[in-house]
Write a structure and sequence with these properties.
It contains twelve helices and eight strands. α8 packs across α9.
Length: 259
């Protein structure tokens, strides 16, 4: 597979690093206007191809992943449109809210178009990626895209209207999880731990919770019941979270970006 990624910023860079580290893709081309950024990738991953020329990057590519800001998508698509082979190439939009219908509109016809949203944990093969296929995309192309993103973590194929909610839960949601970890660290410091100790405790506790749910298949409330005893300290802390509107705040944060 010849893979071209246009855009090597935070999200594009995370995807590229995950794919390059895996060793499962032999031909990766990175296109970006930032030459110093490209030089960093070339130094870290000598086997990748780098260029500032989007047109050269997309020629003969099997899969083209566009990871640029949404407001730049039209400019990039207009630039590369003359050299695209829409009968053969798979085009993936990783730009928030830039759907497969928008790809078809900008490129003047339907093709093997996909809308995918990963998160920055892709660098460590720990992303949660949502993939939706366009009206004309084949199951064979879907399999190619799904296998590509599976290299960088878990994938979920969804209708296109669920990519946005998925983005709020996993792509934006990773920041909300970070904020909870930060709050737990601050609380730990107030109770007497050094910041690095508090970070270690918070991270391992988060890891433990995730591992427990994955390994057992339990519902979170079932796991909560295991550590909540009548009149105990855990229920007191849980009730404080409820009194402060914790559940409501989380739900509102997830829905905020959809308004």
């Amino acid at each position: 597979m010849k893979l071209t990624v246009i855009g090597a910023g935070n999200m594009g860079g995370a995807l590229i690093k995950g794919w390059a580290k895996s060793g499962k893709i032999s031909n990766i081309t990175i296109a970006d206007k930032n030459e110093s950024l490209l030089a960093q990738f070339k130094q870290e991953f000598p086997a990748v191809n780098t260029t500032t020329d989007n047109i050269e990057a997309v020629k003969d590519a099997d899969v083209i992943v566009l990871v640029v800001k949404p407001w730049l998508m039209k400019l990039v698509l207009a630039e590369v449109k003359p050299v695209l082979d829409l009968d053969k190439q798979i085009i993936v939009s990783d730009a928030a809210n830039f759907t497969t219908a928008m790809l078809a509109e900008e490129l003047g016809q339907d093709g093997q178009f996909f809308y995918a949203i990963p998160n920055i944990a892709a660098e460590f093969a720990a992303s949660m990626s949502f993939i939706a296929k366009g009206a004309s995309a084949t199951d064979e192309s879907l399999k190619t895209v799904e296998e590509l993103y599976a290299i960088d973590g878990d994938t979920l194929v969804v209708p296109e209207n669920l990519v946005g909610p998925g983005m709020m839960m996993a792509s934006c949601g990773i920041a909300y999880v970070m904020r909870y970890i930060r709050a737990q660290m601050v609380g730990g410091c107030e109770m007497g731990f050094y910041p690095q100790q508090a970070k270690q405790i918070a991270l391992q506790t988060m890891q433990g919770a995730v591992s427990l749910l994955k390994e057992t298949g339990w519902h979170p409330e079932e796991a909560i019941d295991k550590v909540t005893t009548p009149g105990g300290v855990t229920i007191k802390g849980l009730n404080e979270l409820d009194h402060a509107g914790f559940n409501s705040a989380v739900i509102r944060s997830l829905k905020a970006g959809l308004k």
